[in-house]
Write a sequence for this structure.
């Protein structure tokens, strides 16, 4: 019986390792901060807006670390406006103000996470960012100057 | 609400039956039994008619089941060297670098 239990445990461990396998691709530090930041959002943004906030935070961090990347203020502002609450018409001015402040705090958390992830080796992050900058499909979401 | 109105009517009728005829004759023990019986039957009738009353064997539809816990979709690879994690709304290279262009495209 004990042997059967051990065999079951071993099989479960092997299976979970197989499932978790591809997860190893995510950067542990960046992923840890990202998941907590998403939790701290408490559903204030839609999934699409959450992705946009992260893309903006990444581009801000890249602009701070990598040469050849400068934020375009107008593009950045326009992209940030997409993070307005989807039910803004049902919200009071005070609630909207709280939403904006909330989003800014989480944006700061995400930029911090991106910077921490680049602390050890920013070379690859800058190379990846250069690829993104050259990708025509990314043009609409890019807030760097060309 | 309707039950309360019926109770009031019953009480009024009982009160009338106690006052007007009792003037004509003396109160007997039979009258007390009738009064108690009337009150009991009236109470049962009022309770049965009341909207608030629910029979023990009355079928009540069960409450809807709670929504299932949120489970993000499994990670996926749009390209061999790109992996996306729906729980993070983020895509990475195989070495773990965040890919803004792929994240923007898929989430």
């Amino acid at each position: 019986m004990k042997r059967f239990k051990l065999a079951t445990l071993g099989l479960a461990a092997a299976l979970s390792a197989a499932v978790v396998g591809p997860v190893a691709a995510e950067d542990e530090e960046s992923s840890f901060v990202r998941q907590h930041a998403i939790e701290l959002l408490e559903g204030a943004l839609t999934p699409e807006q959450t992705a946009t906030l992260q893309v903006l935070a990444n581009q801000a961090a890249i602009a701070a670390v990598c040469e050849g990347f400068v934020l375009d203020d107008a593009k950045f502002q326009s992209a940030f406006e997409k993070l307005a609450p989807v039910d803004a018409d049902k919200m009071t001015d005070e609630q909207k103000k709280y939403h904006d402040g909330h989003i800014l705090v989480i944006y700061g958390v995400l930029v911090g996470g991106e910077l921490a992830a680049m602390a050890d080796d920013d070379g690859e992050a800058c190379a990846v960012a250069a690829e993104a900058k050259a990708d025509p499909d990314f043009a609409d979401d890019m807030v760097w100057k060309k | 609400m309707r039950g309360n109105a019926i109770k009031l009517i019953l009480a009024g009728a009982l009160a009338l039956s106690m006052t007007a005829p009792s003037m004509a004759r003396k109160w007997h023990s039979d009258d007390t039994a009738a009064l108690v019986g009337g009150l009991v039957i009236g109470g049962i009738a009022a309770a049965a008619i009341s909207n608030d009353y629910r029979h023990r064997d009355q079928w009540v539809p069960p409450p809807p089941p709670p929504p299932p816990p949120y489970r993000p979709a499994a990670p996926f690879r749009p390209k061999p060297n790109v992996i996306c994690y729906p729980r993070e709304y983020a895509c990475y290279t195989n070495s773990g670098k965040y890919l803004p262009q792929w994240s923007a495209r898929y989430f």
